[in-house]
Amino acid sequence: MKAIVYEGMRDVKVKNVRDPELINGDDIIVKVTSTAICGSDLHLIHGMIPNMPKGFVLGHETMGIVEEIGKEVHEVKKGDRIIVPFPISCGHCWFCEHDLWSQCDNSNLNGEAGAIFGYSNTFGGYDGGQAEYLRVPYANVGPMKIPEELTDEQALFLTDILPTSYWGVENGGVKKDDTVVVLGCGPVGLLTIKWAAFKGAKRIIAVDYIDYRIKHAQKYNGVEVINLEEHDNTGEYIKEITHGGADVVIDCVGMDGKMTAVEKVETLLKLQGGSKSAIEVATQAVRKGGTVSLVGVYGARYNMFPLGDFFARNITLKMGQCPVHSYVDPILNLIQDGKFDGTDIITHRLSLDKGEHAYEIFDKKIDDCIKVILKP
Fold first, then answer.
1. Rounded CA gap, 100 and 60, in Å?
2. Is 61 exposed, middle or buried (0-12, 13-18, 19+ CB in 10 A)?
3. How distant, in Å, are the alpha carbons of 176, 255, 258, 266, 284 from that of 262?
């Protein structure tokens, strides 16, 4: 089959690789109909996630048709059209039973965190879904059948960025009439803005430094935008215009943040796992007693983390990988009822054969690229 594989730093290729096969009784094989590139995929090709072997199949936002099932599979059948949540979860460990699906104790033998499709050996070593076919383990737990009346594009983001953005807003405790700051206007940030409005936030301030993403955020009714590059201290500016800070700051940036020269050197030396810039903006932009919700993916340890600033002002920090399984049904219902639509962030629809080009325009932010959908 054809698949997009990691070949080294900033190097992906579309190659012919071995077709996946059933290994365990509760495995299924999915014929992929749509897949997407996620911002966190860029962390892999930038060398920020360890244990990434050459030839590894990328991708964790995938849906398709069930092609083959193991003898123990009873929740889906051949021919079903399904989405596949990005966390790989067994369904019966303590963490799965307590809805912490992304922290499954059995899916990843290589680390404490749960496994993720297409996300290095550190996160389980499972091939991803930017391919013609995908093996899905624990298929009685994760895959969800999708109503035929919904298009792939309406359903695909249930695999990751729709639940992740919703969870970031819920984790932040956003409520009616709150002031909310969203750091980053990439796919997750733009969806987070929508969910904050859905929850009744009175004032939403979106921050980015890329013009076309800022312009997209401006399309949403009532959203204020701030260009990071137009202020010497964006956090202090937000504190000023909100008269003390926002109730909730949601960091949708993570390792995608702009780095200072020192941070670039430290990252290359593996002293820290990405940019602290978004965290530092959040420190200043949140009000006393407020909440900072970290949705953007971060790496390892961070030097000079501003913990004292958070502590002194009674800030609540919440963070982690979204337990996607818990949110698929409620969000699916909202989509079916016409109450939420995330498809406006899609800017490019390409064939899987164009995978190298897709990664280039997404990574280098060419051609006003926000979100790429790939069709095998």
1. 18
2. buried
3. 40, 15, 12, 6, 21
Q: The tokens of 209 are what?
A: 């430094």
Residues 5-28: pLDDT tens digits? 999 999 999 999 999 999 999 999
CATH superfamily of 164-319: NAD(P)-binding Rossmann-like Domain (3.40.50.720)
Burial of 173 (C-beta count, 10 Å sphere; 0-12/13-18/19+): middle
Could you please state the CATH topology (level 3) that the domain comprising 2-160+323-375 is classified under.
Quinone Oxidoreductase; Chain A, domain 1 (3.90.180)
For residues 369 and 136, what is the distance between their CA atoms, to the nearest angstrom? 29
Q: 3-class DSSP state for residue 39?
A: helix
Query: Six-digit token pair at 263?
Result: 């941070």
- Backbone region of residue 282 per phi and psi (left: phi > 0; alpha: psi in -120 to 50; beta: other values): alpha
> What is the arrangement of strands in the sheet containing 203-208, beginning at the earlier edge strand?
224-227, 203-208, 179-183, 246-251, 286-294, 316-319
User: Roughly how many angstroms between the first and final C-alpha of the chain, as a whole number?
Assistant: 10
Nearest Cα neighbor of 58 from 108, 14, 109 is 14
Checking if the pLDDT of 176 tops 60, the result is yes
Tell whether pTM > 0.70: yes
Please report, for the chain, the start and end positions of each structural domain, with discontinuous segments joined by +.
2-160+323-375, 164-319
CA 70 – CA 78 distance, rounded (Å):
10
Split at pLDDT 50, 70, 90, the class of 256 is low
Burial label, 298 (beta-carbon count in 10 A; 0-12, 13-18, 19+): buried
